[in-house]
Each structure stands twice: as structure tokens, then as C-alpha cells.
Amino acid sequence: MTPISTLYIDRRALRYPETEKVRAALSLPGTVIDDPAVVYQVLADAEDSVARGKQVLLLTLNRGPFLRRCPGTRYYRCCGYRILHIGTFCTMDCSYCILQAYFHPPVLQYYVNQDKMERELDRAFAGARRPLRIGTGEFTDSLIWNTCTDLNMRLVNIFAGQRKAVLELKTKTVNVTDLKPLAHNRKTIVAWSLNTERIMASDERETTTLSQRLAAAKACQELGYPVAFHFDPIVLYEGCEEEYLKVVDRMFEAVAPEHIVWISLGTFRFMPQLKPVIQDRFPDSRIVYGEFVTGMDRKMRYFKPLRIGLCRKMVERIRQWSPGVTVYFCMEDDEVWQRCMGFVPKQKGGLARMLDESAVAHCDLDKKLLG
Q1: Count of H-run helices and E-run strands, the chain
Q2: What does the domain layout of the chain look like in residue ranges?
Q3: What dotted CATH number matches 62-104+113-370?
């Protein structure tokens, strides 16, 4: 991870205890500002605003909702995930990261008004009529914040005290030490993004190795945490099939299938405006030079027969290890599901229902929520 070297503090954030805790943990004095636009301008003026943005942290307030619905698309099957919006951007540097094009410029922000977050969670738990699957890894990496905050420890404790929701902490780090002493009551899923060692070396700077991630997953399994894995993005290149199947094998050698809540598969897709960013920042990367077509969501996607071919092989290998583990596609259509899985989500009550059932089975949730 890239170390944070500069700290800015929104004046409105000064009255929150979390602000002082972060400042002390980073041993940085912090520059108080009245307008976050100051930070945007500092980054916009940098030669590489993305790289500089990973070194500059803004402590500020979340003035919108903390709890949001996943920004899926009506054209592809979405899983009904809820995002807990704790902050934005990341201190790791992956070529394919959509945040490079999603935010202009990307700013590493951490929201300190967490009393509001806790009130929103309380309301969500009280009003839940079905299992809630909530995660913090949509606009940031969930566990980068363990280096300077106790947020994840508090969230694990909050979720441990109820039976209507699970928390998913998704990461490419191995920052799990602070999770070890917690009484999580199997309400927190610790999840890792996985890829081949070749893609990790060429396109995932400042991240941990495959062996390190799998060792961390094994450690969490031994602590009783449910775990999950996300193969996203799956990148097509010469020799990729053999290498992805090897990763599947190594995953199951590290973690017992009964501890895995779900495994997602998602082939590389990107907004057209991300291509020049990757070409400029990762000149040696080859990931944007495949056979792409424009998808219904206007993102560039691999030609469908190509992605079906690899994904079917991965599903087959996963099923050899564990016939019953929940496997799903992130943002794919029914044809891909049918040709790779042999069914479409509607036949099993929908994708959200599939994941809800797996969460209840692995995470000690109230079974009545399934109806």
C-alpha cells in the first residue's frame, strides 16, 4: 500500500472524535480547510493525479446516505447488494480500477460522521424483512483503513449483535490482525479479490501476493469467520485458462469449501474513458488490447463466446472441488448463466435469493427472513 503523506481536514470534521484518532494514528498534523475543492485542485495540478491521490487523505463528512444500493444495471443480473459508503478511493494501485475514471480527480476520503452511519444501520436492521448483505468494498478497499482507524473492529461488533444482516469486508490486503480477537458471531464475511499471479504482477501495484491473500483467508477461516472470494476482473490472455484454474485449486487447498459463503466471477469490463488512463499509467499492461465489444451498459466487454469459454471452465473446476458452493456472476446476462452454470437465476428465485440463502446458511442469520 502507498503510505499517506499528506492529511487535509474539512473544518466541519474537527468536532468528531474519529478525526483526532486518525490524525494521531498517522502522526500527521493535518491542514484544516473550509472547502474540499482545495484538495481537488492540489490533485488536479499533480503530474499523475491518481498516484498523488493515493498519498493524500481528506477527513470529511458523508453528507449523503451511508447505506446505498449497489449501482448495478438493468441489463445484467445484479445481486441486490447494499453498500456501506465509508469513504472513497484506495492506497493500492490496480490498472483496471474503475475509480480512476469514476472520480475526477480521485480523492482518498474517509467519512468521520459515523454516528450517522450507526443510526442508519440501526434503522436498516430494525426494518429488515429479508437478509441484508452489506459491504464496504465498492468505492474503497475495506481493510486499508485498519492501518489508521478502528472502523472495521466497531463494524464487526455492531453486526455481531443482530441476526438480520451480514457485513462483507472485501480486500486485496492481509490486514486481518485486528479482526482476530473479535467475537464476530459469524456475521462478518472476510472476502478477497483473487487473480492470477501474472495479472497481480503486471496490473496490481502495491498489493499483496496470491500466497499472502490465501494465507490470510486461511487464518480467518481458523478464527471462525465465513470467507468469500471474487475473481474480478478475469482477464483473457494467452495461457490464462491454465493459470486461473491453478488459482482455483490453490484457493480450495487453502480454505475448506464449507467455510466459503460465495465465489463471484466477473470478466474484465471497463468504461471507454478508462482505456487512455490505463495506457498512460500502465504502459506495459496489455489488458485493454483484447477482443472487446460494447455491452448493453456501454462498457467494453470481451466478445461473449470468449468469456463464456473461460468462465465455464472455471465453474467446472470449482464444482469439482465443491459441488454445492454458491457461485455467481457479477453483471452477466442469462445466456452466460445458462451456458456456464446450466441454469438462470430466475429458476432459483433470483440471484438475490441465492445469495440470501447462502448468507443464512453460513452466517447464523434468522432463517425466518427467507420467508
Answers
A1: 13, 18
A2: 62-104+113-370
A3: 3.80.30.30
Block residue for cell numbers 476520503: 109
Q: Determine phi and psi for 150, rounding to 5 degrees.
A: -110, 25
Q: Cell triple for residue 339?
A: 451456458
How many angstroms separate the first and last alpha carbons of the chain?
43
Q: Which residues pair with 33 in a beta bridge?
A: 10
Picking from 181, 149, 120, the residue whose alpha carbon sits closest to that of residue 57 is: 149
Percent helix, percent strand, percent coil in the chain, to nearest 5: 40, 20, 35
What is d(CA 183, CA 161) in angstroms, rounded to the nearest whole number?
10
DSSP string, 103-149: SSS--EEEE--HHHHHHHHHHHHHH-SS-EEEES-SSB-TTGGGGT-
pTM of full prediction above 0.90:
yes
Q: Which residues contact 19 (CB under 8 A, 6 or more apart)?
A: 9, 13, 59, 112
pLDDT at 69: 86
Determine how β-strand 108-111 pairs with β-strand 87-88.
Answer: antiparallel
Angle at which helix 151-160 crosses helix 114-127, to 10 degrees, equals: 20
Determine the pLDDT at residue 105: 81
Residue type, 14: L
**What are the residue ranges in the chain where pLDDT is below 50?**
none
**Closest residue by Cα to residue 214 from 166, 249, 177:** 249
pLDDT of 237:
96
DSSP string, 219-272: HHHHTT--EEEEEEEE---TTHHHHHHHHHHHHHHHS-GGGEEEEEEEE-EE-T
| Model pLDDT, residue 224 | 97
